[in-house]
Amino acid sequence: MAKRLQTMAQATLKDVAIVMSLSATEGKCIAYNTHKGHVFIPGKATDRTIAGCTFKWSYLLVVWSTESNGKERMITEFHRMASPYRQETIIPYLNEVHTKLIHQDQDKGNAVFDAGYVAMPVADPDYDKAYSIMINALEQVVNSDKKRMAG
């Protein structure tokens, strides 16, 4: 039964990425369908399906800042997890390592103006694909916010 549940969870999350941005999503995690190209809120059925399953996550951390000379910079870290993690443990872990990266940049005297991450439980992207997914998801969020404000 556990193997069947794991297979169902992998099929459910095949095209899903979790994205967070301090500015665009106000520090909250959102789900992004990489195949259909839209942001969505997972339902209770999805939550139940993946609750007990573990995944070898791939993730990209990004920090955008401004140096003291006014030059903008971006720091990134891309990782593929060697050990499987559950969804409920990966988010706190990502928040912790992301906060450390932000503090490292601030310790250099840089002014951080945004930071975020993208994490994928099933897909195994390279750096460029992960960054593209993150930017596309954040553009979706920003554009939907603009439509809400205008409407």
Task: Walk me through what this model shows.
This protein is α+β, with helices and mostly antiparallel strands and 151 residues long. Helix content is 42%, strand content 30%. The strands form two sheets. The chain has a six-stranded antiparallel sheet with strand order 3-2-1-8-5-6, sandwiched between helices. Strands 4-7 form a two-stranded antiparallel sheet. It is globular and about 55 Å long. The N and C termini lie far apart (48 Å).
Query: Looking at the structure, what is the overall shape?
Result: globular
Relative helix content: 40-55%
Annotation, overall tally of beta strands: 8
Give the end-to-end Cα distance, rounded to a whole number of Å.
Answer: 48 Å
* Unreliable parts: none
Rg is 16 Å
Helical run tally: 4
Mean pLDDT: 86
User: What is the string of helix and strand elements?
Assistant: HEEEHEEEEHEH
Biggest sheet, spatial arrangement of strands: 3-2-1-8-5-6
Strand content: 25-35%
What class do helices, strands and sheet pairing give? alpha+beta
- Biggest sheet overview: 6 strands, antiparallel
Assembly state (oligomeric): single chain
Gist of the model:
With 151 residues, the protein is of the alpha+beta class.
Task: Detail the topology: elements first, then pairings.
Elements lengths: L1 H12 L2 E6 L7 E5 L4 E3 L3 H7 L3 E2 L2 E9 L5 E9 L4 E2 H21 L3 E10 L6 H24 L1
Antiparallel strand pairs: 1-2, 1-8, 2-3, 4-7, 5-6, 5-8
Index terms:
alpha+beta, 6-stranded antiparallel β-sheet, single chain, two-stranded antiparallel sheet, 151 residues
